[in-house]
Amino acid sequence: MPRTALTRDEVLDTAAALVVRHGPGSLTMRRLATELGTAVTSIYWHVGNRESLLDALVERTVQEMGAIRPAGRTPVARIVSLARGLRRELRDRPHLIAMVHERGLTERMFLPVQQALVHEVHAAGLRGARAAEAVRAVQFQVVGFLLVERNRERSPLQSPGEEELWSVATAEHDPALARALARPADPERLFTVSVRALAQSLIDSGPAPETAE
């Protein structure tokens, strides 16, 4: 017997979970109704047709990306926390992010995080072009790192792999380096180290010098 109690949020939650697990192509009204244990007509009542449902998912994703908040006591720590939050959200919902991009809302999706970054670089004393450069550098670092990370995850098994290549005497003057490079990379740690170094260097560069008129 079809269920009677159903909310719009529940429909969107279940639809988003389907997209995250199986991609946008898996999201049919019939499959969604089966997941929810309800009739297709009930879904239409709450969210309209499939295109309206996709639009609602995109809008919700944009809003959720805007919920990323900084944490930490220093501008560098807070910038790092924003970058980590952005990477996490982008990693957790690639299909939903792709849908946002297809609808031309990528810049709108990034805007809240950019605004939060502006606040932090202002707190660190950066203004004008130097502040804009810092904000974009952090954003590009997040997206670029994520692209490399995904490419490594999807690449075929390499032979010889890193552990084999670095087991030979290619770093004879620094065996600790060779051992470290032979171990699998820790993406989370590597990301944090790279963003922290970037943020610190941007802040240490100080305000852009004034040019004579």
Give a written overview of the molecule.
This protein is mainly alpha-helical and 213 residues long. The protein has two domains: 8-48, Orthogonal Bundle (Arc Repressor Mutant, subunit A), CATH 1.10.10; 64-204, Tetracycline Repressor, domain 2 (Orthogonal Bundle). The protein is 70% helix and 0% strand. It is built from eleven helices and no strands. The protein has helices at 8-22, 29-36, 40-47, 50-65, 75-92, 94-102, 106-123, 128-154, 162-165, 175-182, 187-204. Helix 4 runs parallel beside helix 7. The longest helix is centred in the middle third of the chain and has 27 residues, at 128-154. The radius of gyration is 22 Å and the shape is flat. It starts with 7 loop residues before the first helix and ends in a 9-residue tail after the last helix. The mean pLDDT is 88.
The counted number of beta strands is: 0
* The CATH homology group name of the largest domain: Tetracycline Repressor, domain 2
Overall 3D geometry? flat
Oligomer: single chain
- Tell me the Rg in angstroms: 22 Å
Number of domains: 2
Number of helices: 11
Q: Give unreliable regions as ranges.
A: none
The termini sit apart by 77 Å
Structural class: mainly alpha
Under CATH at level 1, the class of the largest domain stands as Mainly Alpha
The CATH topology of the largest domain is Tetracycline Repressor, domain 2
Percent range for β-strand residues: under 5%
Sheet with the most strands, sense and barrel status: none
Average predicted local confidence, pLDDT: 88
Share of helical residues: 55-70%
